[in-house]
Design a protein that fits this description.
The chain is an alpha+beta fold. It is built from 15 helices and 11 strands. A hairpin with a 5-residue loop joins strand 1 and strand 2. The relative contact order is 0.15.
Length: 423
């Protein structure tokens, strides 16, 4: 790895990654928790996201939201957080001389929240507004419908924001219980990149790590299995129909992951992609269409999203299935594969060009892929994909018998039929 990556695993199981970068004056730090919405129990939906919000409402060193906000502004940089299906992350980027203050604030958030009832009640209302906003955004909602159908019966189907009826009942007791069995030493990964001196950084971390509970107190998630489905949902306030369709895809650590990413680029990753050219440029069926890979620890989805006039939705789906069948039958041309490789390499290089993108890249490798590879090694994985590899992966993935589809229509609804999903 360039820049002498420092990689430490504490006796308690906390992983620490530090990449000093000599030519920058900023530093980026992420406190990553290896738990997201798929680790919630049936009575806990939305709690991972609920905690992401409510730890900012007061800690032992910063007892009120105003004090947390003031400490954040004093950093002079950027501080944020997010919750995913498999992780939660609290991260910031500051000038190097503000690193001690950033570490202290991040450490407070992940070890010492107060969970005061009055503050949680206010933030609960904010989260309910966030859920309402998500429901109002058709592309968000049709994606949630897809997850709910494709992984039905598993925690991957949980909306990250949670369900309104459950979130409405969360208070200090629920937040504290989920926090206590989730925010523990083996679940934490600390990643830093930029103008950082590793020994000093470790010294700043030490009192924070000492406050973390030892050992794990959370059962591993059950394996998630995909299933084909077809869901048409009416929505009277929409002018366009929205859809997400998807096929089972490799997980984060699969040997087919690079080929699957390149297949996604070929299918819908750019202006020269198969779907963009056929559906928008040649047929004028839609304004936007694209494909993307969503990998997880033990499963994944190759998803296609689009929106169009309701009267054109069935044709759009039919022609999408035809394009998938063509790739499955004949593979891709050499120039298509080279364009996809260039897109993938460019995206990878761009992910190395700031302290924050380096931090995110390192965390992704450590948490999701279980190994740390140099830029050259990652490039070689992309370059090693052959047309034969892509054809094999396409034949395995783009199986019409395994497709799932959620469509969010207008007042009259959608009318996608099973025969539309057979090329």
């Amino acid at each position: 790895m360039p820049h002498a990556l420092h990689h430490t695993l504490t006796p308690e199981g906390t992983e620490i990654l530090i990449e000093p970068i000599s030519h920058v004056r900023s530093c980026s730090v992420g406190f990553w928790v290896r738990r997201g919405s798929r680790h919630e129990g049936p009575a806990e939906e939305g709690l991972a996201h609920f905690l992401e919000h409510t730890v900012f409402k007061g800690t032992e060193a910063y007892p009120t939201p105003d004090e947390v906000a003031a400490a954040t502004d004093r950093l002079g940089g950027h501080l944020d957080a997010f919750t995913g299906k498999e992780v939660a992350c609290f991260y910031g980027k500051v000038l190097a001389d503000q690193l001690p203050e950033l570490i202290h604030l991040l450490g407070e958030l992940v070890t010492s929240p107060r969970f005061e009832a009055e503050e949680l009640a206010r933030e609960r209302s904010v989260i309910l507004e966030e859920i309402a906003q998500s429901e109002d955004q058709a592309d968000d909602w049709v994606s949630e419908l897809f997850y709910g159908g494709f992984w039905e019966g598993t925690p991957l189907a949980h909306p990250i924001l949670g369900r309104r009826d459950q979130v409405s009942g969360y208070g200090p007791a629920e937040a504290r219980a989920f926090f206590d069995h989730t925010y523990r030493a083996p679940n934490l990964v600390v990643v830093a990149a930029g103008a950082i001196e590793p020994d000093s950084f470790q010294d700043l971390l030490k009192p924070i790590l000492e406050r973390l509970p030892k050992g794990t107190d959370h059962a591993p998630p059950k394996p998630a299995r995909t299933q084909p489905f077809l869901l048409n949902v009416p929505r009277k306030d929409l002018q366009q129909a929205n859809l997400v369709m998807g096929f089972p895809a490799p997980d984060h650590r699969s040997p087919d992951r690079a080929a699957a990413h390149l297949l996604s680029y070929v299918l819908g990753g750019g202006m020269a992609s198969r779907l963009f050219m056929e559906l928008r440029e040649r047929r004028g069926l839609c304004y936007q269409v694209g494909s993307y890979l969503s990998p997880y620890a033990d499963t994944g989805a190759l998803q296609i999203s689009a929106s169009c006039a309701p009267a054109q939705l069935r044709e759009l789906v039919q022609r999408t299935m035809v394009e998938c069948a063509r790739i499955r039958q004949t593979g891709v041309a050499a120039d298509e594969l080279e364009r996809a490789k260039l897109q993938a390499r460019t995206s990878l290089v761009f992910s190395q060009e700031s302290s924050s993108s380096r931090m995110f890249n390192l965390a992704h490798q450590a948490i999701h892929q279980g190994e740390l590879r140099s830029l050259d090694q990652q490039m070689a994985e992309i370059e090693g994909v052959t047309p034969e590899d892509l054809l094999s992966v396409a034949q395995d993935l783009l199986d019409p018998a395994q497709v799932g589809l959620s469509a969010l229509g207008t007042r009259r609804g959608c009318d996608i039929r099973p025969q539309d999903l057979v090329a």
